[in-house]
Give the backbone structure.
Amino acid sequence: MERIHQNLPALIVVLPLCMGLITSIIGRRGLGWWLAMGTASAVLAMAVQLLVNVLESGTLTVTYQMGSWPAPFGIVYVVDPLNAGVLTIVALIGAIVTLYARKSIASEMDPRRLHFFYALWLFCMTGLLGITITGDAFNLYVLLEISSLSTYTLVALGRQRNRRALTAAINYLVLGSIGATFYLLGIAYLYMVTGSLNIADIQHILATKVFPTWGTDAPMYRTTVYVGFALMAVGLSLKLALFPLHGWLPNAYTYAPSSVSALLASTATKVGAYAFIRVIFTLVGTGFAYRMLHTDVVLMVSAGAAILVGSWMAFRQTSLKKLLAYSSIGQIGYITLGFALGNVNGLTASIIHLFNHALTKGGMFMALGVVAYRLGNTRLQDVQGLGRKLPFTMAAFTAGGLGLIGVPLTAGFVSKWYLVTACIEAGRYEMAAIVLVGSLIALLYVWKVVEAIYFGKRPENVPGVKEAPLTMLVPTLLLAGASIYFGIDASTSARVATAAAHFLLGVTP
Amino acid sequence: MQVVLDHYNYWVCVILMMIGFYGVIAKTNLIKKALSLSLFQTGVLVFYISIGKVEGGTGPVLDPRNPEAVYSNPLPHALMLTAIVVGVATLSVAMAIIVNIRERYGTIDERDIEDIENQAQE
């Protein structure tokens, strides 16, 4: 037991990796789901334990040396309040969606190949957890590719429902690989300057040896660091689907199998956002990224455009999955805006919105998955009058929709409250206005769907629909319930987010 | 001129990458697109390998007879072994998806696929 405890940071990545391999070999005849579910639960337990360990430790960090090689020579895994929180999000959503996936995916693909699906599912989780926990810039690239490659394949598995899943997947593959390659090239530039790949070590070398020379007559490697950071920023923006680099997202989310959409929407882009926060706040520091290069202005413009364009495009969709996908682009804008502001409240808003949006959007995609499971389609006309047929599922969808708008007593309200406070604190009134306008547009597109659900008339001569099977309904309600719970009592999520924000900015609360 | 000659290894990488990048954007044949992507990644691999070179350095194998020897940096090479594997995996996933596209659409040209989808919607 003590051994397991000491090796938790490594196990949380290694366990799903090994179980993924095992599942692909022995996971036939329904065993695959049990293996995936067991692994996801174990990962959740480990993530929660790590979060507790970190918050209780005096330094707020837990460092793990792979094979006992000390940094900067070996690869280290570093857990601090920020990534412990993100780990918990990924593990929590992962476990809940795995529970949901069993019935949902069985109706969407060849049952004899389900074990491969669960293997990919676990690889995807491996990559996402690994990106979050690693303290090594190159290791981050490798894990990014592990999660991306399994994601491309998972998206392509939607081919049986609609062959456009394949074109969406190849499009995602091309753009995703370009993003990852840009990131890789960015690391090369920073490696040329610092000779190190360890994130903490690069930060230390930049801060003590490189930046101080820039004020003098002989600035060292100024252009190299500029270009390196720019390449990393563009690469990660592609991964995080920040406007205008969001082109791959709508189709990938729309045509992927329901459970895959739920997992991706609530974890993949969040982990991308985490990696971006890590690069800005830990790797190069805000002094360089914001005060010297004014990246914050670029990010704010992108975020503002993402909020307005994403929400507006969402309003114009009639395919509900596409509506949610575009709304995700808008929500990524809120997350980006939070960390672009760079103050404690902004960062808190960003981190808390990572969590709240994961709950909200995960629950909504799962509710749509139920509609797809029962009706085979998720267009606006398909949900007309479904409120009476699928009362619980539609209630979950509506709760999520209220969260997207940011109605009080939902999780979305808490994040928007922090965000607007942060905008005003930073003197960015125009951004506060954009947040409010974005919420108004969200009201429009959510109302459009809610109206159809509760006041629309069920078309004549369609077969009756039954409420979702229990293994799909319970996870959906769980996430929807959580998005309400964390709106009423935000003390836990706010505590972690504030601790992470204080930690990143190096201020004591 | 001196700038070009001094950094000719960088120029090679940049040219390789840009040929690949052009292919990714301009080609509509999906296989050509996937291969261009591979070329783009190869440009980065060459870049990494060239930055590991130390002037006057030999291969990084410890030579006990010559304690003064200067060695090239082997780390970027080791990193690129991993990146090559990633590149191969990416290309094979891309090819697998393209085979599937060919089976369902009967074409691997993006414009044709777009036409087929537009007709299906009407």
Remarks:
- The mean pLDDT of chain B is 88.
- The interface with chain A takes residues 21, 24, 30, 33-34, 37, 40-41, 44, 47-48, 51, 76, 79, 82-83, 86, 89-90, 93-94, 96-98, 100-101, 104-105, 110, 113, 117 of chain B (CB under 8 Å).
- Residues 88 and 106 of chain B are 25 Å apart (CA to CA).
